[in-house]
Amino acid sequence: MAGILGFSGGVPQEFANSRLQGAIIAQNIVRLSGESVLDLAEINRLDQARNYTEALNLAAEVVQRSQEIRDEAIALSREVEKMTMALSEIRSLEARQAALEAIANRLALISRLINYSGYLGQLLDILGGRFDGSYVSYGEAGRLIDQINAEVRAINNFNKQATRAMERFDEIVKH
C-alpha cells in the first residue's frame, strides 16, 4: 500500500508526515526572517539618521517577530526529532542518507536561528541604550544588522539544501 505522496512501504508514515510538516514550518521561518531583513534595512537607515525612537519601535516589532520564529524553530525541532527517530525504519540506505542530509540541514537552520535571535537582542539593547542616552557607539548597529542578514542568508541556504536532499530522497523511494 502506498503512503503519503505515493511513497512505497519503505518510508514510515511518521517520517513522511514529519518531513512534510517540517518543510511547511521551515518555509514559514524563511518567510518571517525575510520580512525581518526589510525591517532591519529600515532600522539601519533610522539609526544612521539618529531617529532612535522610530528605530527602537521597529526593532521591537522585529524582536516580536523573532519570538514567532523561535516558536517555529521549536516546532521544527520536534518534527526533526520525529524524522530522526523514524530514520532507521527507512529501508534504502541511499534514501536514509539523503534523509539524514536533510535532517542535518534543518538542524543547522535551527542553529543559525539561535544566532539570529541573539543578534536581534543585542541590536535592541543598543538602540534602547541610544534612546536613553547611555550608549552612543555608531557602527555597532550596522555591524549587527550585517550579522543578522548573514544569518538569514544561511537560514535560506540550509533550507534550500534540506529541500534538495528531500527531493533526492523522493526520487530514490519512488523507484
Structural features, described:
The chain has 175 residues and is mainly alpha-helical. It has a single domain, classed as Four Helix Bundle (Hemerythrin (Met), subunit A) (Up-down Bundle). It is built from 4 helices and no strands. Residues 1-7 have low confidence and may be disordered.
Describe the structure concisely.
The protein is mainly alpha-helical. The protein is 83% helix and 0% strand.
Largest sheet: none
CATH topology: Four Helix Bundle (Hemerythrin (Met), subunit A)
Strand content: under 5%
Counted up, domains total 1
Topology as H/E string?
HHHH
Low-pLDDT ranges: 1-7
Silhouette: elongated
Structural class: mainly alpha
Topology summary:
Layout (H helix, E strand, L loop, with lengths): L12 H36 L3 H35 L6 H39 L8 H35 L1
List its salient traits.
175 residues, mainly alpha, Four Helix Bundle (Hemerythrin (Met), subunit A), elongated, disordered N terminus
